[in-house]
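Encode chain A's predicted structure.
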Amino acid sequence: MKKLILLLTILLPLGLSAQNTFALKTNVLHDLSTLSLNVAGEYAFKPQWSAELSASVNSWGSWGGSKLQHVMLQPEVKYWFCEKFNGWFVDAHAFGGGASVGKFWDFSTIGPRFPDLRNYELKDALMLGIGVGGGYDFILNRHWNLELEAGIGYMYILGDEYDGETPTLLLKGSEFDYIGPTKLAVSIMYLF
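Encoded structure for chain A:
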């Protein structure tokens, strides 16, 4: 009980210090394209600066023989050119998580070192990355915004490659480097 009172004592003034300093949001594009749960919290700590922490999870991830299971965290810091939660912004983001992907997509189109995951599965993969991006917030009303965002960056992936039909290990410790899009978002936000 004492910890709860202490937490409320610290967090309550943050939310009451200024209007629209905190937002909850979900990236609808991510939710629909990966059938995942995605939620983020964003706190404006200065008039033109905010920090966001996004989490995404898909533990079921199998449909039509395809598999896309993942857990991911993505911290991000934004600089707003006008004011917080309004107009254009630039950002820097990092991300990390784990995934198992299989019979999903031909990732070899990204680069020659990526597997064709239409017939194979990448299990227990570790993903780490960094990137930069930008976007625009549209004010819908006092509490609701629509945010569009895109980012590019680098991702390191380490996982084990398995045959897609049998549980046969093909290659342990496969490493992949990826440079390209790292974020694409169409988010609905609720501002406090």
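Residues 2-16 form the longest helix (15 residues).
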